[in-house]
Amino acid sequence: MRPAIDLRMLVLSAICVAEADGSPMTASDIAFLLEIPRKETDLCLRELLAEGIVRLDGDSHHMSRELTEAQLARMEHLSDQIRQWCPMMDEFPVRLDS
């Protein structure tokens, strides 16, 4: 059985990547990309907005501040989980450009 994944960090990761690529995403975009229910995405986004990590500009979500050490550690843990589940991911880097 796989350990539970931290959905908030997964959603935050998607926002960080989108921000770095200069293409902020809507809640629907995030839910579609991560293949998670929109209801779960909305819950994660509300929590991230309440904590002040993410800000809303129209329908798009943006990073509003740098991550804390604890958040960075949670992000690293998420990365480790993904690597365990997808061992071939590092062998075949893929970038989806628009």
Summarize the structure in short.
The chain has helices at residues 7-20, 27-34, 38-51, 69-85; strands at residues 54-57, 60-63. It is mainly alpha-helical and 98 residues long. The chain has a two-stranded antiparallel sheet with strand order 1-2.
Can you walk through the features of this model?
The structure is a single chain. The protein has 98 residues and is mainly alpha-helical. It contains 4 helices and 2 strands. It has helices at residues 7-20, 27-34, 38-51, 69-85, and strands at residues 54-57, 60-63. Helix 1 crosses helix 2 and helix 2 packs across helix 3 (38-51).
Key descriptive features of the protein:
98 residues; two-stranded antiparallel ribbon
- How many strands, what sense, and barrel or not for the largest sheet? 2 strands, antiparallel
Termini separation comes to 35 Å
- Level of helix content? 40-55%
| SSE order, one letter for each helix or strand | HHHEEH
Strand order of the largest sheet: 1-2
H/I helix tally: 4
Number of strands: 2
How big a fraction of the residues is strand? Answer: 5-15%
Overall mean confidence score, pLDDT? 80
What ranges have pLDDT less than 50 throughout 5 or more consecutive residues?
A: none
Global shape? globular
Question: What Rg, in angstroms, do the CA atoms define?
Answer: 14 Å
